[in-house]
Amino acid sequence: MAAGRWIAAKLLLVAALILQGAGAFEISLLRGENITVRIKPAPSTNCVLRVGGKQQLSELKIDPGQRLNFTFDCRTPEKYWILVIEKNIDCMLGPCPFGDVPLQPFGLPPLNRTFIWDVKADKLVGLELKFSTWLRQILPGDTCSDQVHYNIGSRLDANRVNIGNFCRNGSVSRVKVQGGVTLTLQLPWNSKLDVSGFKLESRSSIQRLCIIESTFQSEVSTTLMSANYPLGLPEDELMTWQFVIPSNLRAHVFFRNYTKPNCERKYERLEYCLPGHEPKTLPLNAVQPVNIAGSFNLSLQGCDQDDRKPGALSLLFNVEVRYPENEENVTHIVDLTKEKNMNLTIYSKPTKPERLCLICIGRSNKCEPKVTLVSGVSYAITFLCQNTENIRIIAEQSGVCWNSRLCQMRPFSLVVPPSLTQLPILLETFTWKLRAPADTSIEIRSPTLKLKQHIPNQNQICSGSYNYAINGTAPEKALSLGLFCPGGAIEKIQMKDNVTITLKTYGKRWFTESPKQDLQYFFRPVIQEDCIFSLTPGPKAKFYLQTPNWLEGLPAFVSVYWNITVPAKQVAQLMFPKDRLGVTCEQGWANIYIKEQRSDAEETVRRHDQILPKTLNMQHHFWVNITNCKPSAKQLLSVQFMVTFHQKKTGLAVIIGVVVGGIAVLAAIGLVICCTKRKNRKKENQMPMVGVYNTNVNTQMPRKKGIFKKRRKTNVSHVYAVIDDTMVYGHLLDNSMKPENAEIGVYQPFSGPMSTTPPSPPPFRKESKVSDMDASLMLMTDNENYTFAHRTPEELQSNGDVNVSGNRNVGQSLPEKNEQENSVE
User: Could you tell me which of 249, 247, 248, 255 has the C-alpha nearest to residue 272?
Assistant: First the structure.
């Protein structure tokens, strides 16, 4: 009966397209079929619609039982007019017309068409739309490549809910809707499609807004979203996705975006029904299940929202289905039972959109693209992917000293545990955070490999498979020491404050080079210096060094030391590429100090406004200290210097030098003896000469007031009688020529231990107001190079006068107080 009725409708109610001339059409609808056809203008209309060849209309409606002739006065009406065909299906008063839903009426004009089926049903009845060509859900506003577009909606009370927009050729095989449903199909004017592509079926109540069923037959990735996306799921509604997965495939769920409502009562809920498991509730921000074997359900439940600020519950996610990988099921053991204060993350880097490897812990279904492991536990890890090249490890470990008496002087390792280096995946970074109490400093050692500082602009680069970034973490004096790698001369680094060390790897060479690590750290008694580098280079070495915070500049008033060992029979040549420190000081001075570690060593000092020495040859172990001032705005103190080691000159040149020097000494001794005899003859014929002091001549050196304890007006130490030659050259005479009371200075070579304590620079001088006269007495000229020599305590206790030599060797003549004041100035 139903089939005959459909044939009669096709024959009798066909919308006949009758060509009555250019652009002439006819549509005829049979009464009682609940079909309405509207011809509507497109946004821009340059084509006139006429009925009966005369009347001009802006829109045409054809109701059931009507027949109308109409024409367009243009050759391309599809550009300016569209057809809307609406059909009402009532499933409330009688049985629904289950089965395939046809496209009616036939023979429509070649215009863009929109078919709308409005199916009314009781609110307790669940209607099912089953699609012969499965659908693919798209975001609102997106288009389909073939311009065949489906939209499914539902009426909730008086409001329409958009279930989703779809194109053909996807995984959505069924959509079940509680109560009535509205389906819209849009076709282009030249489409050859003559079927709707879905059938209508009825089921019992589904007790929720809708159910979307996705069926998978092979590897594919699909995108799905909640109803009314992105505006939000209706308040306190429930919707479900059913996924049909073959036994030979695995499903993985990845959330791409979601929003949460402001709940007044209840709370939003996400629930999984996985095969072989009880229903599991997860928050929206949790890592979602992966490697799911078998069909499963996912449900999203809303809540009663706050009317004042409701928010929105929306969800956009992907389901990726692929064949299981790593069928051999190789398990790797990550043993962290002996580690402390460590946590690490193993994660997969996607090789293409939505393509991730999975990391499984144990043999459960807990397989995720990112897992976190903690110390004290042993893990069995399995990787589900064809290769592990895109899996990485990020690790972090803390080294904390709570009691300085217990942890000082003990070595601690800064080595990546073997359980990580033996994995077939690359370590990306390993960070050690070292913390110490206020009375303890941190020392980093690399005794066998030693470290090289990475300085690209001097072609001193780290080209191995890993390097270390070392940073101090003091709040006001954070020091970024730079990048370091094995193969240099730095044996240890001492830091006054806490330290963070990050190891970063580069390439597969890490697997073979990782066993060579030898970095250690110690908790030592606190040092006063901010940072000390100790270097023990090999013979004929050459390396560059630079100050911390190279790009930002050394922090204000920070002092950095380099303790450089000179190998036996070597000479160190210290060179500075720039002629000045290159900083302008707002307060205090920036200085560089260089001093050999021997008893009579001179200390070379240069201020920020003075020219640096081009080269210095150091025969013994020496210190280099760079101390910053408070720089002016936009001024940086960043210094580089180079140290090169050469063999000491030996052989014929030294022998010739010794012979020539000996001859010169003998000649000087002969000349002194001759002159002494001549003067003794004159003494017999003359009265003794008396040195006369002329009080009218200013013999005082410009100096600060009160610098001497005795004044020349009250001190007769500057008044001399005859100055006998033996007082000056007595040490060159033999015993027969010396007076009994002559004092002879004898040089004793220093044989005591060398100090490893860094030399203390002069204290920072703050700006103070001085008179013009005082300033003229205090300041030395900038172009005068001068050195300071440390004197013995016996010399410092002398109260005699001071002779100032022309070479400004001030430290050899002034008392200790004068030395400190002149250093600051």
Answer: 255
The residue with tokens 């592990």 is: 388
In this structure, the chain runs to a length of 825
Dihedral of CA 795/796/801/806: which sign? Answer: positive
In order of 481, 640, 790, the CA distances from 455 in angstroms are 11, 9, 35
Higher pLDDT, 354 or 808: 354
pLDDT at 365: 55
Q: Which residue has the tokens 């000087």?
A: 668
Among 212, 214, 224, smallest CA distance to 128 is for 212
32-59: average pLDDT: 82
Residues 6+ apart with CB under 8 A from 434: 398, 399, 400, 442, 498, 499, 500, 501, 521
Q: Which of 391, 470, 463, 387 is CA-nearest to residue 427?
A: 391
Q: Are 381 and 360 in contact (CB under 8 A)?
A: yes
DSSP state at residue 766: P
Tokens of 176: 């079940």
Sign of the torsion angle spanned by Cα atoms 682, 685, 691, 694: negative
Closest CA to 344 of 357, 361, 365: 361
Beta carbons of 261 and 312 less than 8 angstroms apart: yes
- 3-class secondary structure, 543: strand
In 3D space, the residue among 489, 416, 510, 468 whose CA is nearest the CA of residue 642 turns out to be 489
Backbone angles phi, psi at 788, to 5 degrees: -120, 135
Q: Which residues of 224-253 are buried (b: 16+ CB within 10 A; e: fewer)?
A: bbbbbbeebbbbbbbbbbbbbbeeebbbbb
Report pLDDT for 157.
Answer: 75
Q: What mean pLDDT comes out for the span 536-553?
A: 93
282-313 b/e (C-beta count within 10 Å ≥ 16 → b): eeeeeebbbbbbebbbbbbbbbebeeeeeebb
- CA 439 to chain CA centroid, Å, is 31
Q: Per residue in 256-315, pLDDT tens?
A: 999 999 999 888 999 999 887 789 899 998 888 887 888 999 999 999 999 889 999 999
* Residues 352 and 372 sit within 8 Å (Cβ to Cβ): no
Write the pLDDT tens digit of every residue in 107-121: 788 899 999 999 988
Dihedral (CA of 401, 402, 407, 408) sign: positive
> Which residue in this structure is represented by tokens 């915070």?
549
Average predicted confidence (pLDDT) for the chain = 78
Do the beta carbons of residue 502 and residue 468 sit within 8 Å?
yes
E strand or H helix at 772: helix 772-778
pLDDT tens, position by position, 719-761: 444 444 444 444 444 444 444 444 333 333 433 344 567 876 6
Supply the pTM of this predicted model: 0.55
Three-class secondary structure assignment of 459-527: CECCCCCEEEEEEECCCCCCCEEEEEEECCCEEEEEECCCEEEEEEECCCHHHHHHHHCCCEEEEEECC
With CA atoms as reference, report the closest residue to 358 among 270, 250, 248.
250
Sign of CA dihedral 436, 442, 447, 449: positive
How large a percentage of the chain has pLDDT more than 90?
A: 45
pLDDT for 301-334, tens place per residue? 999 999 889 999 999 999 999 887 665 557 889 9
- Amino acid identity at 589: W
The angle formed by the CA atoms of residues 151, 82 and 54, to the nearest 5 degrees, is 155
The contacts of residue 42 (CB under 8 Å, 6+ apart) are: 79, 80, 81, 82, 112
- Please tell me the distance from the alpha carbon of residue 557 to that of residue 559, in angstroms, as a whole number: 6
Two tokens, residue 41: 């203008």
Q: DSSP letter at 457?
A: G
For residue 391, count other CB atoms closer than 10 A to its CB: 22
